[in-house]
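User: Can you recover a sequence for this backbone? Please restate the input before giving your answer.

Assistant: Of course. Working from this structure:
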């Protein structure tokens, strides 16, 4: 009898919990855009494919329109699909949706640094990072010279492969790594330096793991899965190792800091810390400084490195495009002068190829999640403060009116009928508005100069027939990760 009573009590308890969760879901989405009906507890998890969430978003947009609501981990998420809706959220409502949606695996960086900061210090740290990056980017020893110097080392390193097959991941990645390391820490590393390889492997592993189905589940479950075993633990450990590295660099810099002369971005952040010495609510604490450095180090390396690696694979699949690039480089730069930023004006084909690589790979397909900073009326719906908003970028980069046959790699997407570079406002690989990528200028310069330098000196040689090269990513989530591959580079001189 007692057992029956306990069972009934438990069942009633579970039924009440289900009802409460159901009520909360209905209530919280009262005035939100339409979307599929959420199940209690699970919400709309069964309507998304964790292996390819961007594709699920596209399918749901066909049914519910360009602005729709999903319930993930008990919270509503508003998804924007297509140029008009994405642009409206990012540019017309730039302050209303400039918060950063929570990413549970980066809980340790929450409200610190730039990328994952959703707290009161974000505005200051972002503005300061932008200004300092700009200052270090300008002048004689600015980004152009910095990248050109690194292009020289990259070419030398590629030459050492002597036409033998190699995995480009870390060899190519070392160039953007050294460019950002120079800005942040006034330091460059040899291509076989153990510390450099270790840090790059942490960045690379995190970027891959963040795009796997488990992490989609983890990050969309509001952190409930934290205590289970899984690759989220690995990311958290890697993040902490990266931060430990940046903290050590910051401490080292502090010991030799000269307030009259900054050596790099770390010094500039430390100088701000000194200025706030007597403040009761300092922004630039050692913790905030090390997270800011870790953010810039990771974002500044992995994005550009992955784009270059994906780009080389694409060019091997389309040797006729590579051939056209060689012709343009021969004509404009010649065989020995180091590529310069001014060459871009005379190299519309290379410019178009770089844009098309970024469009085609759509490196951050669903963007990073944003968050409503206040209650906002948007297209007739009331989006409450704190709602996660996802302005998807692949929906803009794959717009089939602007880019006919978007699934195909076609540099013509960025060329007019006279072969001149054609600007497109749909090119939103770096997002837009208040959260737009802080490293956009640097990344664009690196992609152009490094790719030009590689192709100026080498022909790319695939180990398989071009037609057999599969460009499909191996993971799609936070980012789109290219397949592993090896290639040979054959000297052109
Ligand atoms: C191909 C290269 C790159 C791509 C495609 C890219 C893309 C993006 C995207 C899509 C975002 C999110 C924007 C949003 O939330 O709306 C972002 C943010 C960010 N990126 Fe990049 N990025 C690249 C290179 C870089 C580089 C080189 C740096 C560092 C120098 C960098 C630093 C950042 C930072 C700090 C943020 C956070 C901005 C904020 O939350 O306020 N990125 N990037």
């Amino acid at each position: 009898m007692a057992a029956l009573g306990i069972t009934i009590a438990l069942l009633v308890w579970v039924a009440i919990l289900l009802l409460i969760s159901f009520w909360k879901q209905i209530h919280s989405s009262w005035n939100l855009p339409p979307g599929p009906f959420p199940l209690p507890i699970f919400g709309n998890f069964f309507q998304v494919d964790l292996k390819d969430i961007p594709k699920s978003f596209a399918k749901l947009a066909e049914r519910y329109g360009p602005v729709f609501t999903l319930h993930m981990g008990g919270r509503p998420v508003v998804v924007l699909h297509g140029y008009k809706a994405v642009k409206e959220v990012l540019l017309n409502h730039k302050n209303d949706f400039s918060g950063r949606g929570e990413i549970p695996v980066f809980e340790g960086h929450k409200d610190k640094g730039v990328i994952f900061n959703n707290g009161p210090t974000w505005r200051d740290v972002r503005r300061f990072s932008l200004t300092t990056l700009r200052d270090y980017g300008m002048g004689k020893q600015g980004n152009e010279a910095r990248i050109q110097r690194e292009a020289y080392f990259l070419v030398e390193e590629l030459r050492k492969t002597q036409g033998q097959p190699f995995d480009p991941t870390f060899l190519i990645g070392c160039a953007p790594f050294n460019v950002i390391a120079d800005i942040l820490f006034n330091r460059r590393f040899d291509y076989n330096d153990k510390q450099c390889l270790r840090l790059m492997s942490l960045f690379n592993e995190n970027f891959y793991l963040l795009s796997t189905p488990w992490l989609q589940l983890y990050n969309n479950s509001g952190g409930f899965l934290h205590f289970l075993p899984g690759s989220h633990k690995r990311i958290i450990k890697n993040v902490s190792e990266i931060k430990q590295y940046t903290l050590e660099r910051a401490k080292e810099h502090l010991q030799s800091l000269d307030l009259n002369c900054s050596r790099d971005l770390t010094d500039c952040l430390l100088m701000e810390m000194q200025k706030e010495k007597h403040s009761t609510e300092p922004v630039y604490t050692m913790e905030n400084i090390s997270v800011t450095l870790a953010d810039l180090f990771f974002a500044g390396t992995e994005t550009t490195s992955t784009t270059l690696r994906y780009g080389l694979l694409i060019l091997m699949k389309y040797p006729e495009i590579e051939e056209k690039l060689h012709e343009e480089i021969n004509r404009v730069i010649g065989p020995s002068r180091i590529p310069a930023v001014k060459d871009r004006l005379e190299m519309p084909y290379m410019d178009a190829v770089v844009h098309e690589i970024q469009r085609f790979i759509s490196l951050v397909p669903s963007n990073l999640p944003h968050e409503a900073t206040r209650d906002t009326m948007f297209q007739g719906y009331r989006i409450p403060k704190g709602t996660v908003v996802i302005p998807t970028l692949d929906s803009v980069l794959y717009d089939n009116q602007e880019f006919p046959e978007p699934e195909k790699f076609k540099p013509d997407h960025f060329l007019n009928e006279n072969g001149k570079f054609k600007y497109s406002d749909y090119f939103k690989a770096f997002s837009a508005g208040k959260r737009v990528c802080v490293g956009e200028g640097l990344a664009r310069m690196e992609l152009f100069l490094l790719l030009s330098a590689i192709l100026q000196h080498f022909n790319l040689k695939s180990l398989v027939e071009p037609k057999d090269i599969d460009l499909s990513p191996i993971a799609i989530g936070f980012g789109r990760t290219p397949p592993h591959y090896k290639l040979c580079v054959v000297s052109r001189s």
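That completes the design. Residues 100, 114-115, 126, 180, 295-296, 299-300, 303-304, 307, 363-364, 367-368, 429-431, 435-439, 442-443 surround protoporphyrin IX containing FE (CB under 6 Å).
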